[in-house]
Design goal:
With 242 residues, the protein is mainly α. It has 2 domains: 106 residues, Endonuclease Iii, domain 2, CATH 1.10.1670.10; 101 residues, Hypothetical protein, domain 2 (Endonuclease III, domain 1, Orthogonal Bundle), CATH 1.10.340.30. It is globular, with a radius of gyration of 19 Å.
Length: 242
């Protein structure tokens, strides 16, 4: 089945310039931004990303060392005892559904890709438990192939910053393509990391630190949170709520 073609309106030149300026400032603000899931191989990142649904990266990182020790590749995970996997990942929440996704995903890798994670989004999204969001995480961070990961942080921040509108932000695929039209493709993966870091450290959902925000000058959402620099600075977190 051919990939679904998504069309989005061409953004204005002024919006493109503003979005890219904001991204450059965030790059200077968060030079260490990166994927906060621990992994060594594409398979490990795929597993960790599936586990990260509805939980924190920190919680996932707490269980994956033991999971990867027992099941280091797709072959061994596909043959794993369900109850053993459930016991390891229980604290990540929804552990039964996640176990089902992991076992089916591993079996699909063994059956269709000789146990190797494919470096193509068309193949990745066919795997059980893998959508475009997970696929783009793996492509961008394990294979170096630019991708846009529309998670809650990216959707919220790009809407607040006026990069995309409310309707588009509710459709992850449309949001992916609309944001991609604003930022150079080579920066897609790192832009996502910067936005996630900014969302966790400064631009919080309920009370953003507007007065201490490095991109406040270009943000139409300025004033959503405290604008006084001293008050806003108290809302900043030095570590993300990973």
């Amino acid at each position: 089945m051919p990939a679904k073609i998504v069309t989005v309106p061409k953004p204005s030149t002024s919006l493109v310039r503003r979005a890219r300026k904001m991204d450059r400032v965030l790059a200077d603000t968060y030079p260490d931004a990166k994927c906060e899931l621990d992994f060594e191989t594409p398979f490990q990142l795929l597993v960790a990303t599936i586990l990260s649904a509805q939980t924190t990266d920190r919680r996932v990182n707490a269980v994956t060392p033991e999971l990867f020790r027992r099941f280091p590749d797709a072959e061994r995970l596909a043959a794993a005892d369900r109850l053993e996997v459930e016991g390891i990942i229980r604290t990540t929440g929804f552990f039964r559904a996640k176990t089902d996704s992991l076992l089916r995903m591993a079996a699909a890798l063994v059956e269709g890709f000789e146990g190797e994670v494919p470096p193509r989004i068309e193949d990745l999204v066919k795997l059980p438990g893998v959508g475009r969001k997970t696929a783009n995480v793996v492509l961008g961070n394990a294979f170096g192939i630019p991708g846009i990961t529309v998670d809650t942080h990216l959707a919220r921040l790009t809407r607040r910053m006026g990069w995309i509108d409310e309707k588009t932000s509710k459709d992850p695929v449309k949001a992916e393509f609309a944001i991609g039209a604003l930022i150079e493709k080579s920066e897609w993966t790192m832009m996502c990391h910067r936005m996630i870091w900014h969302g966790r450290r400064c631009c919080h959902a309920r009370k953003p630190a507007c007065g201490a925000c490095p991109v406040a000058h270009w943000c139409p959402g300025f004033g959503t949170g405290p604008t006084d620099p001293e008050i806003a600075a108290k809302l900043l977190t030095t570590e993300g709520r990973a």
